[in-house]
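Check these lines:
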Amino acid sequence: MFDRFFLTQVDGTIKDHNLTLLALSTCGFCKSAMRFLNEKGIAYSYTFVDKMEPKLKEELKEEFRNKFNERLLYPILIKDDKEVLTGFIEVDWKLTLGLT
């Protein structure tokens, strides 16, 4: 869904879902979320929204709001273009990703 926004791919041994992470480069919770995914060996794509060109950033925000009817609260994990987790609460991410 967000492929046109120059996502960086992170390879992992667990590829059960199509995961997209929207993050901010200066966000501590975003860094914790990325560390969590990396340590669990989960494949995902990500972009740092604060590093995007302003026009592209607005397009991404609008597309996100239209698709999910949610505010952008970082980090944002999009699972299979259907389910959204906002913020990083490890127990919620484990449940959503089937890691319990």
